[in-house]
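Limitations

Structures in this collection are predictions, not experimental determinations, and the ligand pose is part of the prediction. Treat each record accordingly. The example that follows, with pyridoxal-5'-phosphate as the small molecule, is included so readers can see exactly what is and is not provided: the inputs are given verbatim, and the output is the predicted complex.
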Amino acid sequence: MDLRPNSDEARDIAYHFHSYTNARVHEQVGPLIMDRGDGVHVFDNHGNKYIEGMSGLWSVAVGFNEQRLIDAATRQMQKLPYYHNFAHRSHGPAIDLAEKLISMAPVPMSKVFFTNSGSEANDTILKMLWYRSNSLGKPEKKKVISRIRGYHGVTIASASMTGLPCNHKSFDLPIDGVLHTTCPHYWREGRDGESEEQFATRCAEDLDAMIQAEGPDTIAAFIAEPVMGAGGVVVPPKTYWEKTQAVLGKYDILLIADEVICGFGRTGKMFGCETYNIKPDIMTMSKQITSSYFPFSAFMMTEEVYAPIADESGRIGVLGHGYTGGAHPVGAAVALENLKIIEERDLVANAAERGAELQAGLRKFVDHPLVGEARGVGLIGALEIVAPEGRADEFAPGKLGAALNAQFLKNGLISRNLGDTLAFCPPLIITAEQISEILSAVDRSLDGFS
Ligand code: PLP
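Predicted complex:
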């Protein structure tokens, strides 16, 4: 670390309070400062080059210097840098993008609502569902079920729906009415002798039992990512989605598919819902919608979800919800151009093809004594790091993952350790050679480690 008092590192420690960081450790170790990007690579302020194996935060689909997005933002900045959609106002990019998203939806959808982040979108969805239940004369139907280790954001409602301890502990969360059911991670949660399908049945039975215990008329929705991301890249066990949807269908419970990571190609199809034959009532979208060049999010809903909400606003006189930056014209213009690039360059097919290479490569590491499981689908994957045999007591949870992640960095690879899970989620533009670059950095790091 550059310790000169006026270095970027020292000033970062002095003034910058970081997200998802141990603040006291940060004061000692300082930041890794990124300076510029080029395709799937980023360079730090000392000129070191890294392959960005996480697409930033699971989000930069088109790489780190896409001129077309810069041009789209510039054009919109010059024409109309800001407008909103309050009180019947609108603008071209919002209209075009809403129409585009509806046309892309994996099931018939009716309306798009724009927000600024994944958290805000999920928070808004919960509010809308409360509003809808009141509209339907079912004020008791307000609870939402999410999953242990699910990730839905950090605002009060979305952090409550998130099922990770660090998002609840000392924040006095979750709020009442948010419940968490079984995490569908077969490797971790499956019982001795239980097949993947049997485990999926058990997950569905747990959900059913929770609904019965709470009272089916009190549950508005179930929220889930098609593939869990931040909770550890959890790929659903075979038959999970089919069985889960059957339970929800029995009780008239809406399904919110949180496509914030899976959406726009990540799993090798345009949406995770298509990969797993999920029929959502509401879909959350963010991250890859603009390749994160602009903070942006949205959710779309079926007519059945929308109509009672619209009716209630008609009765009250106005829908009392919206954000100054919601439907931002620059974000919408960037999203439109980004989606055009994804389609024109067939990046979804690239995610499927390069994804197959990534998955095959990761699975080869399961023979390594430190690798417990390799998993993933398309261009999202993970290695589960385990202690060498007989030495589990020596390593606190997350310690090995953090150490291996540091080793990756030395080998020019950016991953993210979610406890002892090392995640991989490279940009959708990645080439076969660059997949090999990731895999060889992992190989070298594991070798240097054992
Ligand atoms: N939902 C999912 C599935 C996510 O992965 C994330 C962020 O990682 C969020 C919601 C929250 O998004 P944001 O960080 O933009 O609030």
